[in-house]
C-alpha cells in the first residue's frame, strides 16, 4: 500500500528542515492532536495515538538535506515513511511524505484512512515548524 501527501511549501531552508527532522524528539511537535504517548530512544521513537496501538519508528536512512526514511521497528508491520525535501531557494523548500506498507488486503483496507489522516497531519504540522 502506497500513500503520499501533497507537496507542501515550507518557509525554511532544506538544511534547517533536515536538521529539525533528524532530531527525532522534534517529531512530537508534528504529531496529530490525539497523541497519547511519545518517547525517543536513540535512533527511534515510540508513539501512540488514541485508539491505536503503539508504533516504534526507527531512523533507517538519511541523505543530508534531501531524504529521511523512517521504518517500523517491528517485523510484524513492514512499512516505511519517507520524507523528501527539495530546495526552492535559500529560505524556502518543498516537502512530501511517502508511506509504503506491505499489508494484506484486509489490513490495508482497515488502516488506509487512519494512515492517510496521520501522514497528512504530519505534513500539515511540518508546514508550521
UniProtKB/TrEMBL annotation:
UniProt name for this protein: Carbon monoxide dehydrogenase subunit G
Domain of life, source organism: Bacteria
